[in-house]
Design goal:
Chains A, B, C, D: This is 4-hydroxy-tetrahydrodipicolinate reductase. The structure is a homotetramer. Chain A has helices spanning about 15-25, 60-65, 80-90, 105-115, 130-140, 165-175, 240-250; strands at about 5-10, 30-35, 55, 70-75, 95, 120-125, 145-155, 160, 190, 195-200, 200-210, 215-220, 225-235, 255-260. By secondary structure, the first copy, chain A, is of the alpha/beta class. The longest helix of chain A is centred in the middle third of the chain and has 14 residues, at about 105-115. Chain A is elongated and about 70 Å long. Strand 13 of chain C pairs antiparallel with strand 13 (about 225-235) of chain D.
């Protein structure tokens, strides 16, 4: 069965990858795109998309009403993403959304709407399947190892340390183990910061170097052994495997799922 | 509740670690040991065990009858291990067995016996919790990544390549993915062996260098990302966390479990 | 002092990076470019180079005669590269050449020419400073460790295994150590290929997975320790640091240097 | 030629490894040992050394006078090490010393003494050849990469962070590059310590986990590439390759050398 898809935000960096994904996947079909500009034109007329036939709509509601797609892939901004998600559900279109910024109240309201309409919806802050599995495995391993540290390595243009993924990983680990001060009780930093940041007793180390893209390793230590789970993201195509999985999965859901981890077994 | 334990093979390399484990664990008590020699003496009389109070039996049946322990930890040879396991079950003692060499028929017969006696038994070829988790995670990740390779690294005194753990890992992965030839269809080895061994299409690379102990990494590759699961075993104490877990778990079982992976969630 | 540069092959993948490098470097100036097409036009007229002011020549000799640059950066094909290098030297222009395919006779002839003209020239098959340092360090470490293995990891579109860099590394190591069979004398492959390819006794393992770009690690093993040297190339910008270094160095040379390793201390 | 060796401190952990080293090396001969106890006895009489024939002296001067060895290997305490080194030189015995605690004045005085006697002497705070090479390579690479971070990983019984080797590595790097603030100028730690300790602008991250022994990696980052140098020390035998090299080298020296790096090419 072919899944008919509308992409919102086709000209953004993620959007372009999504267009490529749909083009390359046999059972996916690009039914239309939603863009802030170029209403009524065809994507094929825009420079980098020559050959990609898809009508452009600036009005999402009209798009859903006329095109009646199966799935909306939304890779826009938090505000537009929220608006598109709600509209899609109202029109019976299953949303797969990669933007952040949904509040718990948003999620609750949209979940109710999905259930009323009896269709699926997937909202995920992180679509990199490898990163999501890393977090899932880390949470599982934490039951069997009392000690763990996180090292995340990014390019040196990143502003915040630790990364959001590192914090999320630490939080997932903290949920399944008793809080604990690691290291020797009398350990001393002769240079401040050597032992890293601590999230509920879990040390996090942030490396920032030109050359790196986005990498993280979670190291568990026990008597005579260590277990390391590492994810390397080399470019943004890493997100597309998760988008593909979400599009295929959302067809079989009847509720809203928040977080890719809940659709990975 | 204190768990009263008999150790078979206390003077072997693994046995000594098990004695240390029981000594260091508050709710474990060393009730007796089974040894080929020194019948009727006390472990404390043997050089390296001074201070470890435990009667020595050469006759396992008499040991179980007189001592009535909760658990037998057996770290002997395949033959002795098999004999002790059966005897323990007959006497209502829960066996935790780290020797290999059980046939499917042995396992079937012993499972029946455990169920008759309504007690637990755990037989595990590998007690390193980290290694078992690595295999478990690899099997899970294989559902989401079509391509994977295994690199195992051991000291240069190891005779066989690939390692048993690498083969077992490949086998677990092969169970959950369609068989597949990886790499470029036209790839060519200009030096034979460069692309490693293949188990059902999964390349395995065996590194042998002085310095290494026992290490393995499983690398999954997808568009723009890789996911790596690595286990490093630095010394044989790595097995003791699994033995401890097994002793604690076997008290709550009413059947035989083969493989540590089945008691890890 | 500003170095005036001509780039041959500006529209190729490496050429584009070189144009960007020259633009971004304060003491570099793009004097002209040599291209098979667009003679007499300006680079600024070509789509992706808008704003980059540089006259285009299809005739290299005329370019050198009229523009009188300090340095030629050549990132074309083996044949064109050879021809440009010779011409540049004749016109007193220092060549920095990243193409392969020079024979020992070519090198000898061009070296003589550079010395007659008393100017420098640098020809390098690999401009990634990190990769060249990895090989240099591997050669140095090989004097102190008798055992070494090489693991190289590339994307799964690569056709040949092992990679050229892995072979070159093995060759450099083989030059400074006695030939030797590594591993246990009685080791056995239960699956053929597990122990990798062998170059003069040095095992090489080639991993091919989607996601990877170009990576290599050289692992030395000794009693109780290992030393690992790893290079990760994430994109082709990695070559530009070497091109920059070569341009700066070639100004102070009076002979031809083959291989970046000879200008790294 | 056989090198006749006296070992001071044969019963310590390093001393025992040194005894084993001398036993296993064809052209080394254990002429005697210096110990605080057991004067006049033979090492063979002491429990763990059965079969190792070597007279025991408590008086170092008498030992050197009577035994006339070629080399002293001293693996005792800072105070005893200093005393033995001076005595050895006076008696024409070449010292190879693995203790720390020599002041610059001590080194100067002992260097003068070695030159008067026209014999070699080697004092090294770190005899692990791999660790010394890692530091040497890091210093070399620092000329070509402006950005670097150090991650050191040790068992969780270690009291100080960062490790001495990490600090020494940072210091060697700082000597050859301009001081620099790495990372984005506006980067922010949302959890204090995430970006590690800083030595002259070089971030150092200290990981402490059970299972680890002593490991360090130095990561250099540049445009599109990283270069990593990693040393893993799995047990104290890692020091013996350096002791062996020092014993062989000291025979050809006519002065004192401080630091193993100065005898590695």
């Amino acid at each position: 069965m072919t899944i008919r898809i509308v992409i919102a935000g086709p000209r953004g960096r993620m959007g372009r990858e999504a267009v490529a994904l749909v083009q390359q996947t046999d059972h996916f079909e690009l039914a239309a795109v939603i863009d802030r500009r170029y209403d009524g034109q065809n994507l094929a007329e825009i420079d980098r998309f020559s050959g990609v036939n898809a009508p452009i709509y600036t009005d999402a509601a009209r798009c859903f009403a006329e095109v009646k797609p199966d799935v909306l892939i939304d890779l826009t901004t938090p505000e537009a993403g929220k608006r598109h998600t709600e509209l899609a559900l109202r029109y019976g279109v299953r949303p797969v959304v990669g933007t952040t910024g949904f509040t718990p109240e948003d999620i609750e309201r949209l979940t109710k709407l999905a259930e009323e309409k009896e269709i699926g919806a997937i909202i995920a802050p992180n679509f990199a399947v490898g990163a999501v599995l890393m977090m899932k495995f880390a949470r599982m391993a934490a039951k069997y190892f009392t000690d763990v540290e996180i090292i995340e390595l990014h390019h040196d243009q990143k502003l915040d340390a630790p990364s959001g993924t590192a914090l999320k990983t630490a939080q997932l680990i903290a949920e399944v183990r008793p809080s604990k001060k690691q290291g020797h009780p009398n350990e001393k930093e002769t240079l401040a910061g050597a032992r890293g940041a601590a999230y509920d007793g879990i040390p996090i180390h942030s490396v920032r170097l030109p050359g790196f893209v986005a990498h993280q390793e979670v190291i568990f230590g026990g008597n005579g052994q260590t277990l390391t789970i590492r994810h390397d993201s080399f470019d943004r195509r890493s997100f597309m495997s998760g988008v593909k999985l979400a599009v295929e999965t959302v067809m079989h859901l009847h509720t809203l799922v928040y977080g890719l981890e809940h659709i990975l077994e």
